From TrEMBL:
It holds the Pfam family PMEI. It comes from the Eukaryota. This is Pectinesterase inhibitor domain-containing protein. Belongs to the PMEI family. Keywords: Disulfide bond, Membrane, Signal, Transmembrane, Transmembrane helix. The keyword Iron does not apply. GO terms for cellular component: extracellular region. One of its GO terms (molecular function) is enzyme inhibitor activity. InterPro entries: Pectinesterase_inhib_dom, Pla_a_1-like. The chain crosses the membrane at residues 6-22.
Length: 195
């Protein structure tokens, strides 16, 4: 498995832009070529996958300033970094919830399961980023799919008890979408197989 140190979000993106993206765009006007890249990418992903939410994609990627001066490689990396931030924050939130008294034993057991799933997802997303940066796109896609399955398992656990309201629905949805967006972008970057 890949083991990369945990860069801060902006340092990782800046490093990637200066080492990978800008050298590939010599002689081009970066601002002109990337004005609509977020919109076009989100539209393509929403058109190709019924599970990608166009508005979520657009609003998530637009809030990161560096996304406006990047290409598809940069957008995939940003989506994965946002997924990593989401998963890391959710782990912290679950730990706080487990220390409280707001949940019954069933919900606590579900939260403990979600904590395990999210903790594994943090490591898997880091490994996905490493695989992606190393251009092992198939491996990155498999690991991102694994994270999406973990999120679905977390959400479904609460459904086993009738009337139980899952406390992580927003976090699960957000992480699922971010991984799905990254998957779509990596798919767009993957060369088609020869006939």
């Amino acid at each position: 498995m890949w083991h990369f140190s945990h860069f801060s979000f902006f340092s990782f993106c800046c490093l990637y832009i200066f080492l990978v993206i800008i050298p590939h765009q010599k002689g081009s006007n970066i601002a002109a070529t990337s004005v609509d890249i977020i919109n076009q990418t989100c539209k393509t992903c929403a058109d190709e996958s019924y599970t990608v939410d166009y508005i979520f994609c657009l609003t998530s990627l637009q809030v990161i300033p560096v996304s406006h001066v990047t290409n598809l490689h940069g957008l995939a990396l940003i989506a994965m970094e946002l997924a990593l931030r989401n998963a890391t924050n959710t782990v912290s939130g679950i730990k706080k919830s487990l220390n409280g008294t707001a949940f019954d034993p069933f919900a606590l057991a579900c939260l403990e399961n979600c904590l395990e799933l999210y903790s594994g997802s943090v490591r898997t997303i880091v490994d996905s980023i490493g695989a992606f940066v190393s251009e092992h796109y198939v491996i990155a896609k498999v690991w991102l799919s694994t994270v999406m399955e973990a999120v679905a398992t977390c959400e479904e656990g609460f459904a086993e008890k009738k009337g139980e309201v899952p406390p992580l629905t927003k976090e699960n949805y957000d992480l699922f979408q971010l991984c799905n967006i990254a998957l779509c972008i990596i798919h767009l970057l993957t060369p088609p197989l020869p006939p």
